[in-house]
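To: structure subgroup
Subject: Chain for Friday's discussion

All,

I'm putting the inputs and outputs inline so they're searchable in the archive.
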Amino acid sequence: MVERRPLLAFLAHAVMLVGVSIVAFPLYLAFVASSHTAQEIVQAPMPLLPGSHLWESYKTALLGQDVSAGSGAPVARMMWVSLVTALIITFGKISISLLSAFAIVYFRFPLKNFFFWMIFITLMLPVEVRIGPTYQVVSDLGMLNTYAGLTVPLIASATATFLFRQFFLTVPDELVEASRMDGAGPLRFLWDILLPLSKTSIAALFVIQFIYGWNQYLWPLLATTSEDMYPVVIGIKRMIGGGDAANEWNVIMATALLAMLPPAIVVVLMQKWFVKGLVDTEK
């Protein structure tokens, strides 16, 4: 029986509330800033209560504006680019990793372990390390300012391949023999047996890879030069003018909050599957 200690429970809740406050306060300031005009934000002290220009700021951010400094491109277009990019990267990583792990575990071919470790070694060569040659290849292929250029260099994942391989190794051999006796081919076994068993792992990887694709900054910074192909993370950077330029901080803060919504929605909707995929004892 668990002993109840009111003092420890109070301290635990107090620590939790302090932590939540520390994390939430910057978000609250961004929300307050998005509800005021740019002139009101730069006043000292900055207002700490919401203003009356909330909808104007978000409308301006979504539809775009003409500005003297920085980018005034529509944030709705940027979020669409980020969404498409994140989904392509996510489904691409999961699909390629599933197939590669399936081949490594269930097929016999020469140098199988060698190829697996070559895939695994690519963890030491992230895109930041090979960004120069990668940019050269993408540029020579005419893939700058395209969805292919934003996603193809990021679409392979050694981590996901390793995770699927480790899970497939735990699948009983009796399932393989039973499906073979029933006349199921490799693809039927993958579709009817392995995919349903892997759904929690797929869900966990979907959340991780979606956030990874949505938050990409360095590669899109090089691969995009047109405002029509700016992801929202790059759009926030482009909105901030350099030097003595007057920035529309209310619109920038509204854009930052809008950029947080899709990853937050994905995490909230898939939280149950995400946690189960990470802590399931079968993994």
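Points worth raising on Friday:
The two ends are 29 Å apart (CA to CA).
The chain is about 70% helix and 0% strand.

D.
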